[in-house]
């Protein structure tokens, strides 16, 4: 646990957290809806302890990762009808060094100038354009239901 880490603070209070902060929980990983996204269904997949490089994952944590990325991707396809999910990991922003994978639903109508790395357009909009907590929670509940049924 790192005190200055947003991800660890969320993890430490999961019982009280909104559905958007716990789309999916496994022994070693948590999926959440990005709080600062203006694109519905932008997921963050992160280890449940503080690590700042994928190289620090234990074999058990690493073993869960591949199947989870696949399961979450299948869910984004099934629930949101995306063309494919993008998967990105940088962990460079101040206070966000905790390893986290972005799983971004690339929708069929995504404008060509926001494809590929430029999809981060949707994570850098002013707060007034972010999805509301209610919107994030609704998506989280739908994704969770699909994950449980799978
Ligand atoms: Zn952390």
UniProtKB/TrEMBL annotation:
Q: HIT domain spans which residues?
A: 40-116
Matching InterPro entries, A to Z?
Histidine_triad_HIT, HIT-like, HIT-like_sf
Q: Where in this protein would one find the motif Histidine triad motif, according to its record?
A: 98-102
Q: Name one Pfam family in it.
A: HIT
Q: Which SUPFAM superfamilies match?
A: HIT-like
Under the heading PANTHER family, the entry gives: ADENOSINE 5'-MONOPHOSPHORAMIDASE HNT1, HIT FAMILY PROTEIN 1
> Any idea what this protein is called?
HIT domain-containing protein
